[in-house]
């Protein structure tokens, strides 16, 4: 946890910028652009380049850390693969992308509505066009259910 204090101190030292309407999406975007690993020494410039306020970055990072989804590996901040979403998966890999969606919804509380999906799924690499088919695939497999307007992951995962 001492290492987290270091990254949060670096982020807190960043200049204040206008608040983002979706800081989680912007933090995820920064992490995606950095291969889901970010050297602590690069935290301040990376996050401030996205006009992220230090308190917003801290809130996102702390939330992920409390859930066991992020942490430090030496001087490197990293997030778990499930937070990465569909990045790195081929567009035609429907099975892999459905698995990634399942994991992504699961780690985001097992339930996701359209507004939350717009905030979180797009930066995680899922497109609006493919998401209904991926949801249908998960429903057909009995791994999820959909109750308008929510996607609900079922099973042992939740």
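^ Assign residues to that structure.
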């Amino acid at each position: 946890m001492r290492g987290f204090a270091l990254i949060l101190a670096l982020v807190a030292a960043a200049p204040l910028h206008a608040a983002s309407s979706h800081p989680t999406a912007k933090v995820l975007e920064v992490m995606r652009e950095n291969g889901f690993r970010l050297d602590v020494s690069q935290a301040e410039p990376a996050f401030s380049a996205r006009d992220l306020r230090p308190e917003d970055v801290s809130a996102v990072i702390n939330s992920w850390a409390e859930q066991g989804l992020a942490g430090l590996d030496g001087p490197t901040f990293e997030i778990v693969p499930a937070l990465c979403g569909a990045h790195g998966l081929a567009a035609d890999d429907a099975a892999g992308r459905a698995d990634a969606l399942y994991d992504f919804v699961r780690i985001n509380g097992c339930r996701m509505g359209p507004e939350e999906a717009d905030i979180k799924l797009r930066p995680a690499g899922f497109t609006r066009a493919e998401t209904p088919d991926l949801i249908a695939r998960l429903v057909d497999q009995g791994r999820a259910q959909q109750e308008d307007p929510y996607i609900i992951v079922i099973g042992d995962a939740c």
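Residues 4 and 62 are 8 Å apart (CA to CA).
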